User: What shape does this take?
Amino acid sequence: MTILVTGATGNVGRQVVEHLVKRGADVRALVRDPSKASFPAGVSVAQGDFLDVDSLRKAMSGVSTLFLLNAVVPDEFTQALVALNVARSAGIERIVYLSVIHADVYVNVPHFAGKFGVERMIEQMGFQATILRPAYFIQNDLMIEDVITGYGTYTMTVGAKGLAMVDVRDIAEIAALELLRRERSAEPLALERINLVGPQTLTGTDIAAIWSDVLARPISYGGDNTEDFEQNLKQFLPAWMAYDMRLMGERFLTDGMLPEAGDVERLTTLLGRPLRPYRDFASQIAGSA
Assistant: This one.
């Protein structure tokens, strides 16, 4: 049977497709513009998006398992609910959904609250699903690479509680493994939530220290001012998204983004290898700087 991957041209979705193909799966990728899509041989491409219901119906025809990934957009919740309803009508029961860690805690942050609403609908609609809850993506820090290397300051709002930052490559591989586990199971599998975290929980000062070490010069942490954080983001993001990110940063400062007991061990066992640490990412950037 076929696994449909949504968000297939993004950083996570593209890697999910690659992992599935390497493991022999029959993969279909949902994309808005097929001319811009480049996938391994054997991947079928379906043109469409979440608000084009007819295109979704066509993309989901003959699909047994769905990877649901929504971009952070104003109507993210609506898009996900449309996709879930079309999936149910198409007879799809097996789903892997990319949510976010602490979706039920960061209740005032729009894209967290939206994802928690989707989680609830997955439960209420009776899907056999794995809900993946990733922490902060390590690769988000590519946005401030020039600030770190050029100005000597780490400016992401992280705070002193700490974030269990996770590498996108680990997220994608775990998503693929969960899709295959559900796809290949002879019996329905119970709904499950999995926190996706990195091997360490790092504070803003911790991260600045890693950069200082790999760059061999002092890097300071200057990320606790969420007003400045919002204004900086508004230079390249829509105002609503910059404010959403500011609200998230404020929760970083008050709550952190912390793993639960056993999360790291569970993921290490699932992957059969250690999780990728933040230092590896920083070292790679430093080597190319």
